[in-house]
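Continuing the batch. This is chain 6 of the set; chains 1 through 5 are on the previous pages. Same settings as before, nothing changed between runs. Recording input and output for traceability.
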Amino acid sequence: MEVVHMAIKGDNPNVSDFDFSGKLSKYKLNPQTGQMETDGTKEDHDNLMAAIDRIGAISGAFQKTPQASAPAAGGNLKLHEVELTLTQFLVKFLSMKKKVSAGTKTDYEATVKQFDEWAGKPIMSKIDGDKITAYMEWLSDRGNTERTVDKKVGTLRALFNFAIKQKYFVGENPAAERNLLTRKQKNSGGLAFFKLEDIKQMYDCDAFREFATTEPAFRFIAIAGIITGIRVSALAALKAKDVRVSMEGVPYIRVKSDKTAAGTRDVPIPGRLHAPLKTFLSDSGGFGFTSRPDGKGSSDPIRKMLTPHLESVGLGDEGLTFHGLRKTLNNFFIREKVPFEARCQFMGHEIEHVNVAVYSEPYTLQELAALVEPSQIKLLDLIAFA
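Output for chain 6:
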């Protein structure tokens, strides 16, 4: 280990520089990649890796990755024979899935760290259905809701699915079909819809009109939320240049970054909202809501203004949230007979059915605007937006 340490430091000694007695197993080390080879046994290699773990981080050295723990002695191991913990595999997962959002990455890292710390960092081949059940029971004993338990186990399931697909794991997914909630329970237990009378009560009141002077950013983002259905963090990131007019004269918002790939889209809006929104963003430089450092977006400061406002107008105990505006808009489109395909395109929902995904093209912005604008105008009238 002293040889390895000195080689990393740049002294580059030879084994012959040291007085070792007896037959030595030889190792080759690539400090750029962390790749190690041995002419000894697998036990020799395991002993080396255990020694590295005991020594810990060496200042100025390469960062150890799962790649470093893969021996190439006598013949290359197959991927599933490389003994990785979930923490180590997550590094590989994130290196290949580069479009994972910051929020999802944070959730995955937190869940995997929690699981490995609880389970004692087992290699993936040692994680079975019994271990997943024990983890679920442990989470429940700690006060986690059924929805939270399902979300964390869903993270493990997604990682094992990817590991199986990429040949890092052989066998059945130990986290498969382990949901506590049925699909119906999951869908019905989500964020509440606003009724139209709730929308009227929330927006068409003196308390909300006062925001034009006291909190203009909150006022505009709340109005845009019910008219565009854009997720709150994507809305909060908008700049004046994102509020545009097409060559055909259609006002729209360009969403450059969202929770999903389908969420990155152009959203038509009525000119009645387009002009004042663009003016506000031009004058202010943006909404000014700060994103959380963990990648979870800008919902916190907006929620801190929305919650007391809902309470002040008598809607504090309805379980309403900003995301509920998005659900309410989609539900309103259904009642207004906006076609399914148009709703999905407008809301940024992926459609996987072959008839839509393969055998048709998306609506043009002009076509989409024609389908949704009448409903948007009705909502602007409902909230008394001049």
